[in-house]
Amino acid sequence: xxxxxxxELNYLNDYYDRDGSQILVVYGQKHIGKxxxxxxxxxxKPHSYYLARACSERxxxxxxxxxxxxxxxxxxxxxxxxxxxxxxxxxxxxxxxIVIDEFQYIVRVCDGFMKELITFLHSQWNQxxxxxxxxxxSIGWIENSMITRIGEAAYELSGFLKVREMSFDDxxxxxxxxxxxxxxxxxxxxxxxxxxxxxxxxxxxxxQNICRNILDGNxxxxxxxxxxxxxxxxxxxxxxxxxASVAAGNxxxxxxxxxxxxxxxxxxxxxxxxxxxxxxxxVFSYDTAGKENAQKGIYRISHPFVDxxxxxxxxxxxxxxxxxxxxxxxRYIAPDFRRxxxxxxxxVCRQHLMKLNGRHRLPLELHTVGxxxxxxxxxxxxxxxxxxxxxxxxxxxxxxxxYEDYEKLLLSADKAKINADYIYMYTAFRFDExxxxxxxxxxxxxxxxxxxx
Length: 453
Prior knowledge:
By secondary structure, the protein is of the alpha/beta class. The protein has 22 helices and twelve strands. The protein starts with 5 loop residues before the first helix and ends with a strand.
């Protein structure tokens, strides 16, 4: 079984078992595991797979015809889309699966493709059923442009499956030789993207993996952080400038304006494009009565590997060419790495909280979850049930958790003007004696160590 994708496989198999033909759109960001999912799904079914190219319609037909020939079909050099589909559907018995990967490359240059596909499927009513999977790595195009582009053909789509990032639990299973701390560090660098996980080796330390598989100029991931960005966006100079500025700590629109000297309107447009690709997120504080003490919406890089690239590699590319990978790591990454990982430890803690909620192991049934970002202080976790009972949390990766941290958390809650019914405190180290004693006295205070994750 493909790791962590049981729900997605069940979704596809449910449609496959239905009568008639279907067209499903399967999409998600690059390296998310769409191809691995599709391979697992179609493994024991009659199928045909084609990866579309960014080329002209005529070249697309030629390449698809060549692929058919390699797969044992009789195909002329430049078959029509109808002929391609007919040859695939009419060979063998049973319901066919036709996978067209990165199908946006066809739709963008061929206005008639979707119409031909739908016409073909409707003509199959008295023959074999067909399931067509239209796959894409272009999230922004699928969610914001596809429907307009294909017009009435959208009514013929049977469903959408967005392949999302995998969880921290999945990375723990993927790397059994890593300690739990190393799994958090790997998650902070690679995120929930299984295609990136394949470049790490859990027989090495995290430092060794970063040096060998990211910092080394011959490694596959050396330029991948920027390539993820530039493959889908024009004007890389503008996007590089904005991403580097956000990574350097310019989280607000005005800060970005002062750093880049681009107009605020221009920055907003480019940030919108980055958010559509799920590379940047706009974070708002949880809505509480203490609005005057909260920061307005701030921008963050939401893709961990892209964040790692623009935090450490991009600002120091010159030194990366001159220094050895070990020297580079020790100079630029090692002194700051715990601070960097701390951001993603909060994400891990939130996942743990949601897992407990799903298993009904919390003292309340969570309805909304977020964070509160104060002008002074913060609540890493804040959640409420439908009756308004509130849970707050603090996630501490960098230092042992002391009673003073508990007091600061209560002060932040006071600034947010909320009364916490329950408090969860997460640490990667240990809790001091006074805090442990407080937790024994107060039942609403829960202390969670990293080994509990």
